[in-house]
Amino acid sequence: MDNCFIDITVEFLAVAFHNILYYGSVYPGNVFDTRRKYSVVVYRCRHPEVNHYINSCLKSVEECLKCGTLRRLEFAVTNDEYNPIVKFVFDFDKNSVHEENSDAYLVQVEQNLRAFCLNLNTIIGKFQNNIENKSFTIFLHTNESSAVSMSINPDLQEFPYVEVEDKTEDCERILPLRRFELRGYSIDTYVEIK
């Protein structure tokens, strides 16, 4: 897979995860720092354990992207019983046709990433609720051989992988966020509200 695609995607997901935590009020606002990314203000959690978990997940995402086995990633905000109340879904597809020189300077990509961050800010009120003790979980949809290779990779062994049965869940609403092209790949983002 294209290293540029992998680097930009992992960086984008880090920004998205932290902003979901902030706007979803999973943690108090005072544990976040503000930064600038994609020409907008974004948030980053300062809590070391939260950062460790997110960074460990992002290492796994990077490994799956290198192998070309990541099809979907779900960032679920959960209630106090760890049941998802809202899922931010990122679907990855390889485009059959890609023009190498299109958006060579990644101007359109940056505009799409900025639009995602701004959309995230505006739609959060559509599913904001007063549930206390929220948490979050990150689900990677990959194949079995990729999961096995990650479990024996010494760089990823400190992070536990748990296989989840494939099941369908009903959701009350689906809100599209953004679809954008990046170096021969498409990333669809949307929100599933339980």
UniProtKB/TrEMBL annotation:
It comes from Papilio xuthus (Asian swallowtail butterfly). Pfam families: HORMA. The gene is LOC106124689. Residues 3-191 form the HORMA domain. InterPro entries: HORMA_dom, HORMA_dom_sf, Mad2-like. It comes from the Eukaryota. The lineage of its organism: Eukaryota, Metazoa, Ecdysozoa, Arthropoda, Hexapoda. GO terms for cellular component: zeta DNA polymerase complex. This is Mitotic spindle assembly checkpoint protein MAD2B.
